[in-house]
Specification:
About 35% of the residues lie in helices and about 25% in strands. It is α/β, with parallel strands linked by helices.
Length: about 240
């Protein structure tokens, strides 16, 4: 019997999981940059049994490398693999499949209007209304990406280490001022997205989080709900297998 592998290839990390009797079990997380060098996933090289994989990928180079290595054994998903979602309201040609997988997992969980806010390299939202229609969302830089941009594209601003505490609105030094702009600014942006989304979709819309930086926002925005672990991979598991 073939093992069904689930793969979520993000800008920073790649997760490999096993779909087993309706459950999703994480096998390994690796740096996506390593895949670019190795042109393979070592865990797949060591699989003791036959396998097939379903994958979502936001890095075209990695997709190309893995397709060259594994061929049709890895099936990269498209919107057509999620018939439970109505995509008629959006342009699907540029949709990131990680966002679609998030939406599928959240809609199955909520059973109604729901938004996923994924706090990773980028902060992105996806919204589905109560009728299962995918409405789109928003994309903005995440906290780490903003830090890197400030230090890379200015002459004097330093790199600001990540902080967990909510900063004051007025910083008494450069580092605190940067924290106010980035960390407090991100809180304000996400709060405004929640408010504006509710005006469009309705007050019953739930806001479920995903991504490695979600704890910072959960601690400071009571409107948000902690999503289940491996949300994106759970969505991959909901795609039709063939």
């Amino acid at each position: 019997m073939q093992k069904r592998i689930l793969i979520n290839i993000g800008n920073t990390h790649t997760q490999i999981a096993l779909a087993d009797d309706g459950q999703v079990r994480l096998l390994e997380q690796v740096d996506t940059a390593d895949i670019k060098v190795l042109a393979q996933l070592p865990i797949l090289e060591k699989m003791p049994v036959a396998w097939r994989a379903s994958a979502v990928c936001v890095v075209p180079l990695v997709r190309e490398l893995l397709h060259k290595r594994y061929g049709e054994a890895i099936r990269f998903l498209s919107c057509e693999d999620f018939p439970q979602i109505d995509f008629s309201a959006v342009d699907t040609t540029t949709l990131g499949m990680d966002r679609i997988a998030n939406a599928a997992a959240a809609y199955a969980l909520a059973g109604g209007a729901v938004a996923v806010i994924d706090f990773g390299t980028c902060i992105n939202t996806v919204v589905i209304d109560g009728k299962g229609r995918f409405l789109g969302g928003a994309i903005l830089p995440g906290r780490m990406l903003l830090r890197k941009a400030l230090s890379t594209y200015t002459a004097q601003l330093p790199f600001l280490p990540m902080r967990n505490e909510l900063p004051a609105a007025i910083g008494a030094n450069t580092m605190d001022a940067m924290a106010a702009g980035v960390d407090l600014g991100c809180i304000g942006t996400v709060r405004e997205l929640v408010i504006s989304t509710r005006k469009i979709v309705g007050g019953s819309c739930r806001f479920i989080t995903a991504g490695g930086d979600a704890p910072y926002f959960l601690a400071n925005l009571p409107e948000l709900e902690k999503g289940p672990d491996l949300l994106t991979l759970r969505g991959v598991a909901l795609a039709r297998s063939e």
